[in-house]
Amino acid sequence: MATLFKDSLTVVNVGIAAFADNVRAAGGTAVSLAWQPPAHGDRDAAWALAEMSADPRVEAANEIAFARFLEAQPVLVDIATARDALPAMEGGARVIAHAGPPIAWSAMCGPMRGAIMGAAVFEGWAPSVAEAKALLDANGVALMPCHHVGAVGPMSGIISPSMPLFVVDNRAAGNRAYSNFNEGLGKVLRFGANGPEVIARLRMMAETVAPTLRAALAHTGPIELKPLMAQALNMGDEVHNRNVAATSLLFRRLAPALIESNAAREAIAATLAFIAGNDHFFLNLSMAACKAMLDAAAGVPASSMVTAMARNGINFGIRLSGTGERWFEAPANPIDGLYFPGYSIADAAADLGDSAITETAGVGGFAMAAAPAIVKFVGGTPTDAIHKSLSMRAITIGVNPAFTLPALDFAPAAAGIDARKVVDCGVLPVINSGIAHREAGVGQIGAGVTTAPLDCFVGAVKALAQSVREIGAKR
Amino acid sequence: MATLFKDSLTVVNVGIAAFADNVRAAGGTAVSLAWQPPAHGDRDAAWALAEMSADPRVEAANEIAFARFLEAQPVLVDIATARDALPAMEGGARVIAHAGPPIAWSAMCGPMRGAIMGAAVFEGWAPSVAEAKALLDANGVALMPCHHVGAVGPMSGIISPSMPLFVVDNRAAGNRAYSNFNEGLGKVLRFGANGPEVIARLRMMAETVAPTLRAALAHTGPIELKPLMAQALNMGDEVHNRNVAATSLLFRRLAPALIESNAAREAIAATLAFIAGNDHFFLNLSMAACKAMLDAAAGVPASSMVTAMARNGINFGIRLSGTGERWFEAPANPIDGLYFPGYSIADAAADLGDSAITETAGVGGFAMAAAPAIVKFVGGTPTDAIHKSLSMRAITIGVNPAFTLPALDFAPAAAGIDARKVVDCGVLPVINSGIAHREAGVGQIGAGVTTAPLDCFVGAVKALAQSVREIGAKR
């Protein structure tokens, strides 16, 4: 202490910047670290964090949830039609599933409304988009999140009863997840387009691609998705916004089986051309695999592990393992993106889609180091990509040895978001995303990188703390 | 000067290490740089270098040769049978082409002899391997390098009249290059295996795969190879020892065309299965593309650009643009590799094959930063891979903007080896390679990384200096 006051002071200030001003005013040298209070200063959340910090019940629960996540073995086992696979749509009930947390028809963003109207036309519930709107305005279709029927869908994420689904089983725990098929780029339903060519493509996917792929699957047998994703991560994909390697590897598996199947040659030709023409074909499988891995981790009381992140174009929602099926929502953050010529952020819908399930599972933005081409696309460098992947380690329970990143010397990718850590250090999950036009019918206008909003995690941490209190005394 | 002798000395010694000893003995501090004289102290080569250093005739010639290399646009235009495509094999003459510079039957390494005997059986010139050996011992088959017939082949590189070839045209300059088809891994002719299953596979390739691919090419039209290679370099391939991305991307192009072609369904099934089952299928196309790019740069008087590097399993040979078709040879360096269980360097044939044409064109080992999985395989790290790619910049004329390396912030790969620079700085071209067993019939026993031997470049530089002297006075 005597020495401290004898020497001249050089201070590193962790906390309110004004402290450093005082040191400087007194003739000392001070450096202020960039600092902000946990939970943006939300007192209840800070108390919740303090309660659960190193709480052995939360730690043990996270260990269980994270182990179930790591042990998951998602396998593509079948192709099915939504009406046959999803009890909510049994018999072709007038039900449509959408991306993100629950939201009313009247509150939905433009592209989601456009996509739902298109789906109603596709189902034959309305002869035109205008009549579909009238039907929906009259509450003639039940709407619910994909996550509520065990499914995920990118962007608007629309699933209606006649659409084909990938059926993905987690062989380790027996749980099942679904996703719709990827339509490709350009004017597509998931970005809100609903013209005749969009409906015709949906029909072709249901009538030709789906049964043909099903015949191929009978020849390949179930396809393990985790090794395929792992290989793609070593080939420049992050299996969210970049799927060219995964799509190509899957195509190499499917094509020989297609030709050996009993499908008609014309159907095989159409199916091969459809998959070969779409670098994003694998995205929906990646998403279903991620959901299967994360659903295995769901429902562990006291676990602060995030098991879903999803956006409905208005709000961003998350679920924690320890709080079950409850959504914690906040307005979606804007996307730092590159826009197609003629468009700007003023034209953009808010962050949209269930595809943030990939980041929840430690790929996508979390594995950005694997896909430097994505940051380059939005003006960054491979070093930025590496930093994004490294920074995610601050908010995860651990790493996933199944998914390695070549640029990080094949280190495993960070995985298993701990909502406590997000609130505590303020580092937000990085999310890669496409950008939809805010009006129905226009489609994609760009792609970019965004983050999950902090307030979802603040709300979730408070609710988790409450549920932990209800469990009883700390053991 | 007065100051120099007043202060205590700290010396950086560039040159013979004994100079530093003297400084130290006198009480000074000295650090010796790792240094060796150019051309390993070969006085004639050093004079040749001095003569050609910054010689405007050499510089201008290299500019021309390198520009022709960069402008090349290799395109897969056709599949042909060697007897129809190569004048030397017209009418099925008893001619076999092999990898590397010229070598006599009696001097060849085991795997090359094994492969040539297999090819003789495949052609029906001998009913058994033993009788093929007798035929070859009696000089019953003319042997010549693939490079002498405008072709390249990996490892033994065997091309006989009935084998199918890829036909690759350089659209920019009109020159044409060929390569044989890749057989896959395991017991294959190129590694010296010649049993019945090897011959049967060669037959299937000629009778089924080749005509079926030809039918597909009629549907795709010519396939540009440079963009495909560029994309693969951004997906973890270096298009020499790693071709999984390039093969998958090519497969995605071919499969839809195959099913739309008029080929029989069984032939399509066999062809798809054959390509899908071989991650190295693209290698031979990469090699033909590289040869087409480099042949465009050949024959520019006074140019010190290397236009071919090739190994026959005994000697490593190079060609320079300015010395035309002459080979400069030296014993091949050993391979720092990983051996399959049960094998060691004692079992290995020397560095073998025309595949070093890829490194000559600035991919393969030169693009190692793109494929960290390869260095990892032999015990290195992604940092080693980056260093290998960076160090090649010391010996090249420039960089190739068509081939970018993600790990180097998408910097272009070094390309266009300048033989003067190799001799001057002693940095040797890095070469990725498979390792063949030294005896005929065994096959591949490992893979690894080696370098081109300096003495090829020393000999080439001396000969080039002589030819430049003959051109006349410096302008």
Key phrases:
homodimer; 475 residues; alpha+beta; v583 fold; Enterococcus faecalis V583 fold; 5-stranded mixed beta sheet; 4-stranded antiparallel beta sheet; 18 strands; 39% helix; globular
How does this model look, in words?
The structure is a homodimer of 475-residue chains. Chain A is α+β, with helices and mostly antiparallel strands and 475 residues long. Chain A folds into three domains: 2-35, no CATH class; 43-69 and 298-471, Alpha-Beta Complex (v583 fold); 74-288, Enterococcus faecalis V583 fold. Helix content of chain A is 39%, strand content 20%. Chain A has helices at residues 2-6, 18-25, 43-52, 56-71, 82-85, 110-122, 129-137, 196-220, 225-233, 244-260, 265-276, 283-295, 357-360, 372-377, 382-391, 419-425, 454-471; strands at 10-13, 29-32, 74-81, 95-98, 142-145, 151-152, 164-170, 176-180, 223-224, 306-312, 315-320, 328-331, 336-339, 352-353, 396-405, 411-417, 430-436, 444-451. In chain A, the strands form six sheets. Chain A has a five-stranded mixed β-sheet with strand order 6-8-7-3-9. A four-stranded antiparallel β-sheet of chain A has the order 12-11-10-14. Chain A is globular, with a radius of gyration of 23 Å. The model of chain A has no long low-confidence stretch (mean pLDDT 93). The A-B interface holds A 231, 234-236, 244-245, 247-249, 251-253, 255-256, 259-260, 265, 268-269, 272-273, 276, 372-373, 376, 381-383, 406-407, 409-410 and B 231, 234-236, 244-245, 247-249, 251-253, 255-256, 259-260, 265, 268-269, 272-273, 276, 372-373, 376, 381-383, 406-407, 409-410.
